[in-house]
Amino acid sequence: MKLISGSMLYDAVHCPHRVSMDVFEDPGLRDDPSPFLEMLWEQGWNHEFEVIDRLGDGVLNLFSLEAAEKEVRTLEAIKNKVPLIYAGRIRHDDLVGEPDLLFLRGDAYIAGDIKSGSGFDGDESSGKLKRHYAVQVAHYTNILELLNFSDGRKSAVILDGGHNEVPYLLADPQGVRNKTTWWTLYLETLQYIRQLLDRSETSKAALSAQCGHCHWRRRCEDVLREVDDLTLIAELGRAKRDLMFASFPNVASLATSDPADYIKGSKTSFPGIGPDTLQKFQARAILLKLPDAKPYFREPVELPSSEVEVFFDIEDDPMRGMCYLHGFVERRGGVNATERYIACVALEPTPAEEERAFRDAWTYLMGLGGEARVYYYSKYERTAWKKLAERYPGVCSVGEVEALFSEEWMVDLLYGVVSKTEWPTNNRSIKTLAKYLGFRWRDSNPSGAASIEWYNQWVETGSAEVRQRILDYNEDDCRATRVLLDGLRTIAKN
Fold it and tell me: What region does 295 belong to: left with phi over 0, alpha with psi -120 to 50, or beta?
């Protein structure tokens, strides 16, 4: 009997195929974990241990025990009404769970997990729970109910990175529009995993943003390219692929199709996929299959020149909640030889240094006086600066940040320009597009995740070499934005 764990539920929300691969595929084909993942694991454990220390001497700590003994000791502790159990193990039939915490509330137990990030999905004010957290703690809650250790209220707790206790009320609907409860989501996910494990259901790989740190990434990418999978098309994910698969089993079949055959009025043969979206995917499929395909604009876009052009990118560490670097590459007269890099860096992971770096960056942009055009990629910089303004109102207000990013001379290349183009690429990330245009980062492993790991090294060691690696990476990100702008101008002329 294959046991179903909480981590399998967690993974299934992101990628059900990972569950199948972990159970049935040769583990020797896995990728080695990246330094970033290893850092996350280490920081996660350190955070857990810090939380347990904060909870004091009343915690029964079973962390160091082997699985079998841990299970026995957990059951003994529950029967003896131990108030708080850390790293226990509970099991019923094919279900097994290792909740970080088991809290005694009244005469029953509820499960809790310790997370180093936020307990909410996106902005905390939304109150929206994270799906992968919800199914994981629902799994522990289900086992407690089956063992008659729960009060039946279907509630659990996430202790987040700020040491806040976030209630997960699993009988509640997932949202205003989605009335399906979190508990139903869990039961549906559990049923699907059982079907995967008994081979009555199969899963397929899909290319997505979640693939970046998965240990099956290279294996799945090889398979996807071999079968010419639809998820190789930018923004066409697993759900849309599955809807379209019977009609279009691969990119080539979509590229050679006539979308009109699948359009009737304002709808298509595929629920949730409108005519415009279907035609967009078909155009992207054609680009992927044409040997000499070139990017193009779908509609005219103005890209006026300016004597001063600034390319802007930030670096932050979500584990610390720290925005530590605001980088700018300034170019004059459109001449690359005039470029200079300005880095506003927090020299220590402290609020005072974060505020100083933010103030320096704000002062720099305000000093441009609207005479330059500033280019950045996606809404991330705007969102990060709004959060910084909330923390440090002495630098500027949230309203001032909103006003700045609303200025005509502040240009979001992704949403303002690239969104009106088509490219023969699998995604629209700045790294993919800049590399397509011939740009190369100096670092052999350029990624936002890697930069977080480098920053962690710098904080721990103070290494000047690591600090320079971070600065070089950020400068290259800024220059990649410049390469993209120049490339877009060339495409617009053709």
Answer: beta
- The encoded tokens of residue 290 equal 């044409």
Between CA 484 and CA 428 the distance in angstroms is: 11
Burial 431-459 (b: 16+ CB within 10 A, else e): bebbbebebebeeeebbbbbbbbbbbbbb
Q: How far apart are the C-alpha atoms of 322 and 238, rounded to whole Å?
A: 33
Q: Which residues contact 76 (CB under 8 A, 6 or more apart)?
A: none
The two three-digit tokens of residue 390, written as one number: 């909330």
Question: Which amino acid makes up residue 420?
Answer: K
Nearest-angstrom CA–CA distance, 299 and 274:
20
Query: Residue 12 has which token pair?
Result: 């299934």
The tally of CA atoms less than 13 A away on the side-chain side of residue 208 is: 17
> Cα–Cα distances in Å, from 67 out to 61, 63, 124, 445?
14, 10, 35, 37
3-class SS of residue 374: strand
Per-residue model confidence as pLDDT tens digits over 382-440:
999 999 999 999 999 999 999 999 999 999 999 999 999 999 999 999 999 999 999 99
Distance (Å, whole) CA 298 – CA 294:
13
Tell me: the pLDDT tens digits for 304-354?
999 999 999 999 988 788 999 999 999 999 999 999 999 999 999 999 999
Q: Which residues pair with 331 in a beta bridge?
A: 309
Report the alpha-carbon distance of residue 457 to residue 466 in Å, rounded.
Answer: 7
At residue 56's C-alpha, the angle toward residues 52 and 78, to 5°, is: 75
SS3 for 446?
Answer: coil
Side chain identity, residue 268: T
Torsion angles phi and psi, residue 122, rounded to 5: 80, -145
